[in-house]
Amino acid sequence: MAATLHDVARLAGVSIKTVSNVINDYPHIRPTTREKVELAIAELGYTPNLTARNLRSGRTGAIALALPDLSLAYFAELAAQVIHEAEAAGVVVLVEQTGADRDRELDLLRSPRLKLTDGLIFSPLGMGQEDAAALNVSYPLVLLGERIFDGPTDHITMRNVEAAKAATEYLLKSGRRRIAVVGAHEGEIVGSAALRLQGYREALADAGIPYDDSMVGYTTLWHRANGADSMRELLAGGAEFDAVFGLNDTLALGAMRVLQESGRRVPEDVAVVGFDGLDEAEYSIPSLTTVDPGREWIARTAVTTLLERIGAGDEKPAPRTRLADYRILERESAPAGR
Fold this sequence. Notes:
There is one protein chain. It contains 11 helices and 12 strands. α10 links the parallel β8 and β9. It is elongated. The termini are far apart.
């Protein structure tokens, strides 16, 4: 038979209220009393009734995380980091995959399943700036990504333009002058691809190098196969380049494979830089130089910001936008000195 709160109180020689205060980490308890209760809990193997506690507090002890596609390494690693940060705070994470579909993302924001959680960390890909009003929800919400700006909720994101500009400048400083891009989205105005392409163009302009659209490989998805296909199209079109900037690491890895298949040496003939700082980029051959956009900071800040909102209750502080710092991880595919 499972031990009860009464059993713990009896063994520790304290009141039920004192046991409850220890379990709920009430601060004003004498260390000796806390120790007696904790020893009794350990001896009896007592497990608190979280359901009852949550009913009293009005909280579930869980948060939701909605991401577009867990088959993309960036989102898989982001999810793992969010779960790690939440667990450290004593919170569990329920993960939703939206498939980057606008209707599914909008439905999720209204889903009754969210009543099982205390708040949502949300990274949309299908929604756009015109959907900002849909983020005005009754529960705590933290927005990630680059699809919606200046919305009614906290926004944690990365410095896409500045980081992409720095990556392009890195290649320019190493002596490369004809830099191709893999992964642009044709016609996109708001989003990661558009912002990173903007940073690339700004770096070229500052260096006095004209923008050449024939050096840009367009695609739709950001998987390895898309990077490979985009690189094949660039090569088939006769583009001549001495460097490649992949708008994410998986695109860069796919492009690098095709370069090697074509007989081009990396980095001797073509330097390659990616974006995302994925774990696998460190173990490719050659290892991939990449931009770390601050994913760990983004995960940690998203969790702490959401928990702050949950803790604030009915108070509604003004929404904040917070930007992660980035760094370039120099590796074999693009050493700093040519």
